[in-house]
Amino acid sequence: MKARTFRHGIHPADGKSLSASSPIRLFVPTGAGEAVYPLSQHIGTPAVPVVSVGDRVRAGQKLAEAGGFVSAPIYSAFSGTVRALEPRTAAGGETVPCIVLETDAETEWIDPRFDPATSDVFNASSVAAYMASGAPEHLTAEDIRAAVREAGVVGLGGAGFPTAVKLTPKNPDAIDRLIVNGAECEPYLTSDHRLMLERGEALVAGCRLLLRLFPGAVCVLAVENNKPDAIAHLSDLVRACGDARLSVCPLKTKYPQGGERMLIRAVTGRYLNSRLLPADRGCIVMNVASVLAAYGAISCGRPLTHCIMTVTGDAVSSPCNLEVPVGTSYAAVLAEAGGFSAEPEKVISGGPMMGTALFSLDIPVTKTASSILALRHDPVALHDASPCIHCGHCLHACPEGLVPQLLSAAAEQEQFDVFEKYGGMECIECGSCAFVCPAGRHLVQSMRYGKRQTGALIRARKAAETSNQTAQKGGAGK
Fold this sequence. Notes:
By secondary structure, the chain is α/β, with parallel strands linked by helices. The protein is 30% helix and 18% strand. It has three domains: 16-300, Rossmann fold; 308-381, Ubiquitin-like (UB roll) (Roll), CATH 3.10.20.600; 393-475, no CATH class. It contains 14 helices and 17 strands.
């Protein structure tokens, strides 16, 4: 099958060879310590604590319940005692309410099926037994959504949108594509690659279970062609399961192929903008890790307590892929990878294109953490920004077909009407424009500022329009 793609984009050095051959290894912190659980680990309303200071908890126990429809519960990956409910600093630098545990030297699980060290939930034979048991045939759509909701599953591709909400579109019968995002286009990251190779049976089973929600849909597992082993493995599994609704779609290796809009465009040819959801175009898009978490939740009620992280970069002693208990510190995760081999100039949570530079390692890993990247040299700091030379490279890189040079200038000059007129709100902040800019301009930061300010003006304008309409209706009724 010919590899599909989208227009424009870039080809940064991927750095994936550092960890691509490293199997996922479970990280089990030793000795007593501390685990920190921010209540905002997802898009939407923060979770609400169901524990109090002094309470004893076991691993797999709920710490906080969903605070609303667009929210998700949080579960402990450790046993221990609740030491505090207090503000702590998160990876993005913001201070957020957290549950702080004093952890036991040895973890006691509430259910052995939830313990990654002993559970066989993702084992090929266990998956085959479950799928052949007849249990999946008795699942209703609400059973599936309720299991995913109760387990605290969120989008693990970075956004953190509650998965149960995503699986509840207004019209399920209008969904004709379930797209599983295995692109993993961000440089250096290899955790999804390893999941497709090591837990492919559970991934395919998860896709089949989720298709029960959308009777008119087919499922496409979309994988960039720089992962031929994953494409071959998943293709074999899809053929073996005999489900004609599943297929594997190779994608051209290009950044940002894993972006939701780019992925839908490549797989279906359909276009989205900032005012549309994938469901408005008949699509549900889920990350590989999210599908696996959903499978665990549906098959045995397994809550989301761990995330799969790539620990990599030329300043890391032993680049690897780890299954990390949520609540652990970034410092502990780096230590598990052997620490630094050289003094890093920059440490990033996530990838080099869309990740967040860390100012401290004493911050907690959350559900959506995908990587720790430690670099000896910071490419952004190699030279200062200089004036735009109007070369047009950013225009040819932008996957949304925008003109970043014009839009960034409009934002910097606070011409937000111009920013809105020429599509600035469609920017996905992928960083492609900044990557190719020979002047080293901070285009993403300017675009982000423009979006924030323009968004505020749009909301104010809509509020004023609503107020005027209300006033006019009131006057007409007198």
